[in-house]
Design brief:
Structural class: alpha+beta
Distance between the termini: 32 Å
CATH class of the largest domain: Mainly Alpha
Strand order of the largest sheet: 7-16-1-4-26
Strand content: 15-25%
Pfam families: BTK, C2, RasGAP
CATH superfamily of the largest domain: GTPase Activation - p120gap, domain 1
Number of strands: 26
Number of domains: 5
GO molecular function: GTPase activator activity; zinc ion binding
CATH topology of the largest domain: GTPase Activation - p120GAP, domain 1
Largest sheet: 5 strands, antiparallel
Protein name: Ras GTPase-activating protein 4B isoform X2
CATH architecture of the largest domain: Orthogonal Bundle
Keywords: GTPase activation, Metal-binding, Repeat, Zinc, Zinc-finger
Helix content: 25-40%
């Protein structure tokens, strides 16, 4: 049994931000921190005070986390980035909103005395004395202190205060991981109510010292315990009343949802998994038809989550194709008009979207990646709508003569025809690169639609069914928002965004098989019609080859593709290679291209793929592949061993214990993450539990008026239908959860104080 917490984060947009640049604008981006650990950085939106990001993230983290903070920053090319403001949401705040925290929140001023981080190791003792007892405070070490100096470190010392008397440790230069091992004693009077205050400070020669955090110790509690030792979380100084610039720094729109799950052992979920798998294997002729019932009882707002969980569960069981095939048949059975097929947000549509993102993202990158990169690199002005043409944005050509509107339209059409042609050519060459399970699923879709809508008048319907997912719900959204599909690290500027939008419209026209409706919708797309018509023929030929895969070929291709472990993360890293003392210069590092799989971490001198290195993504990837590593260290050195000591804590023993704890619990969810079967089963159980009343109502109808809530017959009494078995499985799982330890998050040891915000 394991307790797991996750955060669904959507950073939507900001508004009314203050201008930080001399141009009267800003270049905002967001940094997301969990307990002061940066985990997310959004793209920068240039020259705006009302940025739109629309970025979504799923973060897995320990149940004991305290808060998540959103910092809005202004990027500067020549100086340090400016802090605009922040929003901080505590765990208690998120737990009070079970359906998620959503809406606009005012940005608050970032006060240096509140921006504290790290922990301090103290040993506290109450000792007998000749006249009175003595309070002994041993300041041992600290870790992960906030860097306050330009060199990226601090010069920390500790100030211990009790009953008007103050004592200080020595100063440790240039370290966020200092070690003091100094002891202080105070006279202790019985019944004294004053608290012991331990403050960490950064020493500065010229300016005032910077506050690093404090710990307040309850002496009465310590008197009862006589001794206490551990790591204490540093707290902000909230003793001063500070004016808040609420509303003057703009606002941030967020959607944040906390989910706490107690995941039981795999054996507890086996009856539920086996029952659902049996239903899928039986298909539409099954006796209980649980899958249609799940779709019927699932609300629109949670249909995407349910579809994703079911898809991942069946993908792990090797039944993703059969599950989607069942949904295809159910959708076709209630569709009478071919032009409305798969156009709604049904369970079939949502499951297929999730399937393509989980199983086809690498394929998408291989096909679209080069085309998207070329559009970003060219940065050409492209416009086909005469009402939106801006000649002044185009520049001059020839002998410094401004281009006419006709010339702009013609050059734009040529550019889009070139991009569309390159994309279609790449797509036609990619049949063998497409994952076997994706090809087999499209084969089932093609066959089912052709069986449902036979005849010459419906000749294009099977092709349109495939392109409705491949082009309209997968390729086109990726073209319009490459950042959200990890094709680019930054959002496109206004000019590039317009080019991508027009290219996506052209792809949609090709995917619609150039129907009259798509032609008349936007007449100014007419210059692309020759390429679109040619693309329709190419696309039909591609789909014909794509779905032409037999069971044997499917197994052989899947076996070939599975021989190599898929990379979890790829990209360049800089390796420090300088030995001895001296400054860290660019020549001190060597650039190598790394590839991390579930089996090994390898590197080469040249890149095998074009990926951008992000520190938090690398850390997240390394944590995922190390999750089952029993030899994982509990501590490490965040610095380097240079000369005769570690740069982080100044420790001289190279193989000594690390000065910082290993953070192995905070990870970002990616499309290529390994499947977690137990977690998916738990999420499905949670959903079914939320609609249990409707399931009982359906059971009452099917069983001829039995009262809702009546226990289904036990296996020995009479044959059960699938719905009755499902209700019994839910009952057993509920009992298993109730008999397990409380599913509320485990609190940290007493020495780690709760974060106050």
């Amino acid at each position: 049994m394991a307790k797991r917490s996750s955060l669904s984060i959507r950073i939507v947009e900001g508004k009314n931000l203050p201008a930080k640049d001399i141009t009267g604008s800003s270049d905002p981006y967001c940094i997301v921190k969990v307990d002061n650990e940066p985990i997310i950085r959004t793209a920068t939106v240039w020259k705006t005070l009302c940025p739109f990001w629309g970025e979504e993230y799923q973060v897995h983290l320990p149940p004991t986390f305290h808060a998540v903070a959103f910092y809005v920053m202004d990027e500067d090319a020549l100086s340090r980035d400016d802090v605009i403001g922040k929003v901080c949401l505590t765990r208690d705040t998120l737990a009070a909103h079970p359906k998620g925290f959503s809406g606009w929140t005012h940005l608050m001023e970032v006060d240096p005395d509140e921006e504290v981080q790290g922990e301090i190791h103290l040993r506290l003792e109450v000792l007998p004395g000749a006249r009175a007892r003595r309070l002994r405070c041993s300041v041992l070490e600290a870790r992960d202190l906030a860097p306050k100096d330009r060199n990226g470190a601090s010069d920390p010392f500790v100030r211990v205060r009790y009953k008007g008397r103050t004592q200080e440790t020595s100063i440790v230069k240039k370290s966020c991981y200092p070690r003091w091992n100094e002891t202080f004693e105070f006279e202790l009077e019985e019944g004294a109510a004053e608290a012991l205050c331990v403050e960490a400070w950064d020493w500065d020669l010229v300016s005032r010292n910077d506050f690093l955090g404090k710990v307040v110790i309850d002496v009465q509690r310590l008197w009862a315990a006589q001794q206490e030792e551990g790591w204490f979380r540093l707290q902000p100084d909230q003793s001063k009343s500070r004016r808040r610039d609420e509303g003057n720094l703009g606002s941030l729109q967020l959607e944040v949802r906390l989910r706490d799950e107690t995941v039981l052992p795999s054996s507890c979920y086996q009856p539920l998994v086996q029952l659902l798998c049996q239903e899928v294997k039986l298909g539409v002729q099954g006796p209980g038809q649980l899958i249609p019932l799940i779709e019927e009882t699932t609300s629109t707002e949670c249909r995407q989550d349910v579809a994703t969980n079911l898809l991942k569960l069946f993908l792990g069981q090797g039944l993703a194709k059969d599950f989607l095939d069942l949904l295809f048949q159910l959708e076709l059975s209630r569709t009478s008009e071919a032009n409305t097929l798969f156009r709604s947000n049904s369970l079939a549509s949502k499951s297929m979207e999730s399937f393509l993102k989980v199983a086809g993202m690498r394929y998408l990158h291989s096909v679209l990646g080069p085309i998207i990169n070329k559009v970003f690199e060219e940065k050409k002005y492209v416009e086909l709508d005469p009402s939106k043409v801006e000649v002044k944005d185009v520049g001059c050509s020839g002998l410094h003569r401004p281009q006419t509107e006709a010339e702009v339209l013609e050059q734009s059409a040529q550019t889009l025809r070139a991009h569309l042609g390159a994309l279609l050519s790449a797509l036609c060459r990619s049949v063998r690169a497409c994952p076997a399970v994706v090809r087999a699923t499209f084969r089932q879709l093609f066959r089912r639609v052709r069986e449902r809508f036979p005849g010459a008048q419906h000749e294009n319907v099977p092709f349109i069914a495939v392109t409705s997912f491949l082009c309209l719900r997968f390729f086109s959204p990726a073209i319009m928002s490459p950042k959200l599909f990890h094709l680019r690290e930054r959002h496109a500027d206004a000019r590039t965004s317009r080019t991508l939008l027009l290219l996506a419209k052209a792809v949609q026209n090709v995917g619609n098989m150039d129907t009259p409706a798509s032609r008349t919708k936007e007449a100014w797309m007419e210059p692309l019609q020759p390429t679109v018509r040619q693309g329709v023929a190419q696309l039909k030929d591609f789909i014909t080859k794509l779905v032409d895969i037999e069971e044997k070929d499917e197994l052989d291709l899947q076996r070939t593709l599975s021989l190599q472990a898929p990379p979890v993360k790829e990209g360049p890293l800089f390796i420090h290679r300088t030995k001895g003392k001296g400054p860290l210069m660019s020549s001190s590092f060597k650039k190598l291209y790394f590839s991390l799989t579930t089996e090994a971490l390898s590197f080469a001198k040249t890149p095998s793929s074009k990926c951008v290195n992000e520190l938090n993504q690398w850390l997240s990837a390394l944590r995922k592949v190390s999750i089952n590593n029993t030899g994982l260290l509990g501590s490490y050195h965040p610095g380097i061993f240079r000369g005769d000591k570690w740069s982080c804590c100044h420790q001289r023993e190279k193989t000594g214990r690390g000065c910082d704890k290993t953070r192995s619990r905070v990870t970002l969810q990616e499309w290529n993450d390994p499947l977690d079967h137990d977690l998916e089963a738990q999420l499905i159980y949670r959903h079914l539990l939320s609609v249990e009343a409707m399931l009982w109502e359906k059971h009452r109808e099917l069983s001829g008026g039995a009262e809702a809530g009546t226990e289904p017959a036990s296996p020995g009494e009479a044959p059960e239908d699938s719905l009755a078995r499902l209700l019994r499985v839910l009952r057993d799982l509920r009992e298993a959860h109730s008999s397990s330890p409380a599913s509320s998050p485990t609190s940290e040891p007493n020495c780690l104080l709760e974060l106050q915000t």
